[in-house]
Amino acid sequence: MRTSENGMLVGWPKRLLVVGALVACALALAGCSTSIADLPVVGTPADAPARPKEPGSFLPVNNLPPDRDEAAMDQATRDKIKAELAAARAKQAEAAAANAAGAPK
Predict the structure, then answer these.
(1) What DSSP character marks residue 64?
(2) What is the full per-residue pLDDT of the chain (105 aa) written as tens digits?
(3) What residues contact 15, with CB distance under 8 A and at least 6 apart?
(4) Phi-psi region of 39 (alpha: psi -120 to 50; beta: other; left: phi over 0)
(5) In the chain, at which residue ranges do the beta strands (DSSP E only) sit?
(6) Cα torsion for 16, 19, 21, 23, to the nearest 10°?
(7) Cβ neighbours for 81, distance < 8 A, ≥ 6 positions apart
């Protein structure tokens, strides 16, 4: 190995970069090899339900749920909730204005 005048190895940043890249690749490949939940040491808790033998299938994307027979909320309830929200908004605006007016500058 070659050394410079102050005794440091020449090309050590390149070697460090190559070693770091190799370690990162090894860790990435090792992460794909096993699942942590399947390891006997880590494993799943004792009260966990058993895993199914076959993996589940994907949910049907194009199947829409059936239409409701009745409305989720009638118009009178909607109007009541809108009025309550408007009153709460006005009360908060008044409180914020009072805090801003009373705050020392």
Answers:
(1) P
(2) 555 566 556 677 888 888 999 998 888 877 665 566 566 656 667 777 777 777 777 777 888 888 888 878 889 999 999 999 999 999 999 999 999 887 665
(3) 9
(4) beta
(5) none
(6) -130
(7) 73
Measured in residues, the chain has a length of: 105
CA distance 94 to 99: 9
Is the CB of residue 45 less than 8 Å from the CB of residue 39? no
* Distance in angstroms (rounded) separating the CA atoms of residues 92 and 9: 68
What pTM did the predictor assign? 0.35
Confirm if 9 and 3 have CB atoms less than 8 A apart.
yes
Tracing tokens 């409180």 back to the chain, one arrives at 95
